[in-house]
Design brief:
CATH topology: Rossmann fold
Number of strands: 6
Shape: globular
Order of helices and strands: HEHEEEEEHHH
Distance between the termini: 21 Å
Low-confidence stretches: 190-212
Number of helices: 5
Strand order of the largest sheet: 1-2-3-4
Strand content: 5-15%
Radius of gyration: 16 Å
Length: about 210
């Protein structure tokens, strides 16, 4: 998106968007379609892949596509809206957000607290992992037919993290020197000057005291 006199402006408004349809008209997602979409994005030069979807089932096809893509792309996914902890806390694990090569994104509310609907990581460093929380309540976005509305969910939070990843990648363009893992590390490390800069930026622009 680019600045204009109406509508909205994305956080990484200078980024190019590769819109790929991985879901079906019914709202369901087939593993084969997800794998094809991820592979297409990676093969065509995507730096960041945002996945505002997820489920409790794992898929070898999807895992293989994501692992291949993770060498060149920062992978971001929504943690889900079941108000549930990960399975190690008696809840459910959501994938692809839970894979350790994907940044799993929870949702924060306007006060910077975990949104009531958001899933969360019960034990840090164990099995299924969600790494960050980002603004996910009443997010202004686009609808078909040149319309706009506010929506809530981890699917709205994940693109904020994807945008932050795109901003970092625009500074560190050499993928041989600065791998996708490096970009992920900048985002999730609390001591990173880059991450702190982005936190200040998003706190000011989106919500006060947001978690990213």
């Amino acid at each position: 998106m680019s600045p204009n006199n109406g509508g909205g402006v994305g956080l990484a408004y200078g980024a190019k968007i590769m819109a790929i349809k991985a879901g079906q008209s019914t709202g369901s997602f087939a593993s084969s379609d997800i794998a094809k979409a991820v592979k297409y994005a990676a093969d065509n030069g995507a730096d960041v892949i945002n996945m505002s979807f997820g489920g409790i089932s794992k898929s070898y096809l999807v895992e293989e596509a994501l692992i291949d893509a993770s060498h060149d792309c920062v992978l971001v996914a929504a943690a889900g809206n079941d108000s549930a902890p990960t399975a190690d806390g008696g809840g459910i694990d959501i994938y692809p957000a839970g894979y350790n090569y994907v940044i799993g994104v929870m949702a924060a509310d306007n006060s910077g607290n975990l949104a009531k609907f958001s899933n969360w990581d019960f034990i840090i460093g164990e099995n299924c992992e969600y790494e960050l929380a980002a603004p996910g309540v009443n997010i202004y976005s686009t609808l078909p037919g040149d319309r706009y509305a506010c929506w809530s969910g981890t699917s709205m939070a994940a693109p904020n993290v994807a945008a932050a990843a795109a901003i970092i990648r625009s500074k560190y363009t050499d993928k041989n020197k600065y791998t996708s893992r490096f970009i992920m590390g900048q985002l999730v490390s609390a001591t990173s000057s880059i991450a702190n800069m982005l936190r200040r930026f998003i706190i000011i622009v989106i919500y006060p005291r947001a978690m990213i």
